[in-house]
Specification:
Blueprint lengths: L2 H8 L4 H5 L6 H18 L8 E5 L3 E2 L8 E2 L3 E5 L15 E2 H4 L5 E5 L6 H14 L3 E5 L10 E7 L2 E4 L4 E2 L4 E10 L2 E10 L8 H12 L15
Parallel strand pairs: 2-5, 6-7
Antiparallel strand pairs: 1-4, 2-3, 4-6, 7-8, 8-9, 10-11, 11-12
Length: about 230
């Protein structure tokens, strides 16, 4: 779906009746988030060389029963942690900061609802309180600002906007890329490495390998089927 079509739909008087409570972004966000997570697992190696965890729409909690805080980012990523071996148990289905020993380094939110500025501010404050290092806001329909991607970085107790889309402590960056993912041509949010190169998905790496190892027709040696 093109951006112009989405914006036209937002102006439709029936849009709020149908989508007023939708904060997930639907199919577009689902596919885009899958692209982000899959490329991390395929191509990212954290600077410290440690294991990492990346997940879609897993709640984050501070683990404090007296002052319980729970928030559900669209994506989270954390270095040096692994999920529990018993991850189907209810207690292990949440990113409990007390259990993991640290907050996630990155949370990412896709802005899909045009009528929740107060929720946006409250969520930002919650991330500050939880100790998140980077918050990424992806606003493809420009519901809150004219900026499509904003990266906030922790400075003291605050998450303040950067002037670029780099996450230097992780050796990552973000960019908008026009191309095809899972059969869909669109503009996608993609990770880059410290050199600005895209983190490739498994399919992209496989395609790159095939193009480098399977010779084209013009490259193949000419053989003769006749005898002399």
């Amino acid at each position: 779906m093109s951006l112009s079509y989405i914006l036209q739909e937002l102006d439709d008087p029936d849009f709020d009746d149908i989508h007023g409570d939708d904060e997930t972004g639907g199919f577009a966000a689902d596919k885009g988030l899958r692209l982000l997570v899959s490329s991390l697992y395929t191509s990212w190696r954290p600077p410290a060389g440690t294991a990492f965890l990346a997940a879609i729409r897993v709640p984050i909690g501070n683990g404090n029963k007296s002052t319980s805080t729970l928030v559900v980012p669209d994506l989270l990523a954390a270095q040096g942690v692994e999920p529990s071996g018993e991850w189907w148990k209810p207690v292990n289905r949440i990113y409990h900061i007390a259990r993991f020993g640290k907050p996630p380094e990155v949370v990412l939110d896709v802005l899909a609802s045009p009528n929740r500025p107060e929720a946006y501010a409250a969520r930002h404050q919650t991330y500050e309180q939880l100790g998140v290092v980077y918050r990424v806001v992806y606003d493809p329909c420009h519901l809150f600002s004219g900026q499509t991607v904003t990266v906030f970085e922790r400075q003291g107790n605050r998450l303040l906007p950067r002037t670029d889309t780099h996450l230097p402590l992780l050796g990552l960056g973000l960019t908008l890329w026009r191309g095809t993912f899972e059969g869909r041509d669109d503009t996608w949010l993609r990770w880059t490495n410290a050199n600005g190169e895209l983190l490739l998905t498994g399919d992209e790496l496989a395609d790159l390998w095939r193009r480098h190892t399977i010779p084209s027709v013009s490259d193949r040696p000419v053989t003769s089927s006749g005898s002399t």
